[in-house]
Amino acid sequence: MNSVILEGITKTYDDGNVMAVDNVSLQVKPGELFGLIGPDGAGKTSIFRILTTLLLADKGTASVQGLDVVKDYRKIRNMIGYMPGKFSLYQDLTVKENLTFFATLFGTTIAENYEVIKDIYDQIKPFNDRRAGKLSGGMKQKLALCCALIHKPEVLFLDEPTTGVDVVSRREFWDILNQLKAQGITIMVSTPYMDEAILCERIALMQEGSIMQVDTPQQIIRSYPVRLYAAKADNIYKLVQDFRMLDAVSSCYAFGEYLHLTMKADKPGDIDALREYGISHGHQGLEVKEIEPGIEDTFIRLMNRKAQTNG
Amino acid sequence: MKQLLVFIRKEFYHVFRDRRTLLIMFGLPVAQILLFGYALTSEVKNAHIIISDQSMDANTTKIIHKIQSSSYFITEVKSLAGEEIDAAFRKGVVRAVLIFPPQFGEDLQHKGKANVQIVADGADPNTAKTIINYLTAILGDYQQSLADGASAPPGIVPELRMLYNPEGNGSLNFIPGVIALIFMIVCSTLTSVSIVREKELGTMEILLVSPFHPIMVLIAKAIPFLVLSLVNFTFILVLSVGFLDIAIKGSILLLFAESTLFIITCLSVGLLISNIANSQQAAMLISMMGMMLPTLLLTGFMYPLDNMPYILQLISNVVPARWYYLIVKAVMLKGLGFSYIWKETLVLVGMTTVLLSLALLKFKTRLS
């Protein structure tokens, strides 16, 4: 049986005028580290709130550990851990006080479930008597995770846990998630960062309330249907404009210091044609190469295709 | 049960670690009591008056002595002509001018009847009236003393007695009002703000997702403010007795019981507001506008309700502070027992039941 099941979940706000989640179906296996990937406003938070029994869906059914989110909401509340996106703890309480409070609230003690949080808590223990408001972003996040884990939940929901956290802390955070997974906890995490998608076992790419693709990150990358090229030149701004004028180019967008391009025809000789085209437009320092696509390339491709079918 | 205790302890941490909350909680009562007790008093004390004595005889001298010996006035004796009176008023310091005409003494001796003129600054009618009353009283007193011994003309002599407040201490009237006002602010505003803050911080989502019953969240929020308000109440009573010379005539126990009831009313209002408001500012505005103004204006402690248009009198019936004000006045100032205030108490109990059930029913166990 799957840990989390969503079937045809639809959620609208403002009397149906704003579509937040559009007919989403999804399964998360027990013990899986599952990622919801998508930009702000994709509907990730709404899905989390429906699963944590905080919101009622307009249509569809959902269950967590086999329990219905509407009927059995009190039972679900006992067995899940949840870290909301804007969760910021009690700023005026110390680390220890925050943790004690949440432990008691969930009917347990720090000592009782110490082994669940030990690895994370050890890192913030030196700051036990510091107020949460005075912690760094990464520390706050670890404390919040401790608070969500203190009652040893079966399923953990983390809504954008790494937003606003520095790169080093983000990496540490994902290491921690993998350790938790090793303890058998099912984890559902959302993030707007594509580079974090690769760290999940399976991901769902979301855009405007609907799911575009669900698979392992590797499979999603492998399923990229065409060759992808990267190009750069001294005047990158002019290069974008020039390539976009070219009829054979299917898509062209800036990606870091490079442009990423796909071709309509997708033939082996495309790379030379692009090079010649660039030189003929007088570009200095031109470089064109074929590259492996990333999650973000897939995302942009799916997004464009959706926009085309819609418009 | 342990959950509730830890939750309540957390709430106390919040209160004691936030300077603003502490200031509202304990600074406000002191400021209000001192302001109303000493600054915003409607009594007339040390009013500047000028006495223009154009008669200068034994009678006027005696009257002037009488006026000078009262604590109501700061007097200045000098003769003023018509335009000079106007000029004196325009400067704004002089509140009234008492003029004895040249033949005052003579008329009084021979005709048994004399005229004086009192000119008062009507720009502030209440003060003017009070000053005129004081001055006429002094004049009447003097007339009485003249009549003594001689064949007094028959007349009606009113014997005045201010019941419950023989000294005319103005603090008596507003202390119950201030207490009601402080409870309204402390309980309604602080409670609603403290719940809405959890919404803003995102911690409300966790509280709801936890196995802790949502209703217990409200109870845990309310209890600390109930306790603190009772401490506050004691504090106000001590201030009133110590600084404003107010004697508590009735049963202190009854006073505390009724106050606890009113605090629960205010807490229910605060809980109700927290259901509607989604930001701390909104909660603050609703409780300030929606609660403070009616409490100030429609309880009868600043402006007599009987003078208001009928429709406002009707509205004042739904202001809880109005009933509490009557109760405190009855118990604290008049020393009346429960048998005299059971009706008001019943009204408050009714209001509290309705407000509290509404607040509990409307409390969302989900986010929307």
From TrEMBL, chain A:
<comment type="similarity">
    <text>Belongs to the ABC transporter superfamily.</text>
</comment>
<dbReference type="Pfam" id="PF00005">
    <property type="entry name" value="ABC_tran"/>
</dbReference>
<dbReference type="GO" id="GO:0016887">
    <property type="term" value="F:ATP hydrolysis activity"/>
</dbReference>
<dbReference type="InterPro" id="IPR003593">
    <property type="entry name" value="AAA+_ATPase"/>
</dbReference>
<feature type="domain" description="ABC transporter">
    <location>
        <begin position="4"/>
        <end position="233"/>
    </location>
</feature>
<dbReference type="InterPro" id="IPR017871">
    <property type="entry name" value="ABC_transporter-like_CS"/>
</dbReference>
<dbReference type="InterPro" id="IPR003439">
    <property type="entry name" value="ABC_transporter-like_ATP-bd"/>
</dbReference>
<keyword id="KW-0536">Nodulation</keyword>
<dbReference type="InterPro" id="IPR027417">
    <property type="entry name" value="P-loop_NTPase"/>
</dbReference>
<dbReference type="GO" id="GO:0005524">
    <property type="term" value="F:ATP binding"/>
</dbReference>
<dbReference type="InterPro" id="IPR050763">
    <property type="entry name" value="ABC_transporter_ATP-binding"/>
</dbReference>
<keyword id="KW-0813">Transport</keyword>
<keyword id="KW-0067">ATP-binding</keyword>
<keyword id="KW-0547">Nucleotide-binding</keyword>
<protein>
    <submittedName>
        <fullName>ABC-type multidrug transport system ATPase subunit</fullName>
    </submittedName>
</protein>
From TrEMBL, chain B:
<dbReference type="GO" id="GO:0140359">
    <property type="term" value="F:ABC-type transporter activity"/>
</dbReference>
<keyword id="KW-0472">Membrane</keyword>
<dbReference type="GO" id="GO:0005886">
    <property type="term" value="C:plasma membrane"/>
</dbReference>
<dbReference type="InterPro" id="IPR051449">
    <property type="entry name" value="ABC-2_transporter_component"/>
</dbReference>
<feature type="transmembrane region" description="Helical">
    <location>
        <begin position="217"/>
        <end position="244"/>
    </location>
</feature>
<comment type="similarity">
    <text>Belongs to the ABC-2 integral membrane protein family.</text>
</comment>
<keyword id="KW-1003">Cell membrane</keyword>
<dbReference type="InterPro" id="IPR013525">
    <property type="entry name" value="ABC2_TM"/>
</dbReference>
<keyword id="KW-1133">Transmembrane helix</keyword>
<feature type="domain" description="ABC transmembrane type-2">
    <location>
        <begin position="128"/>
        <end position="366"/>
    </location>
</feature>
<feature type="transmembrane region" description="Helical">
    <location>
        <begin position="21"/>
        <end position="40"/>
    </location>
</feature>
<keyword id="KW-0813">Transport</keyword>
<dbReference type="InterPro" id="IPR047817">
    <property type="entry name" value="ABC2_TM_bact-type"/>
</dbReference>
<feature type="transmembrane region" description="Helical">
    <location>
        <begin position="174"/>
        <end position="196"/>
    </location>
</feature>
<feature type="transmembrane region" description="Helical">
    <location>
        <begin position="250"/>
        <end position="273"/>
    </location>
</feature>
<protein>
    <submittedName>
        <fullName>ABC-2 type transport system permease protein</fullName>
    </submittedName>
</protein>
<feature type="transmembrane region" description="Helical">
    <location>
        <begin position="285"/>
        <end position="304"/>
    </location>
</feature>
<keyword id="KW-0812">Transmembrane</keyword>
<feature type="transmembrane region" description="Helical">
    <location>
        <begin position="340"/>
        <end position="361"/>
    </location>
</feature>
<dbReference type="Pfam" id="PF12698">
    <property type="entry name" value="ABC2_membrane_3"/>
</dbReference>
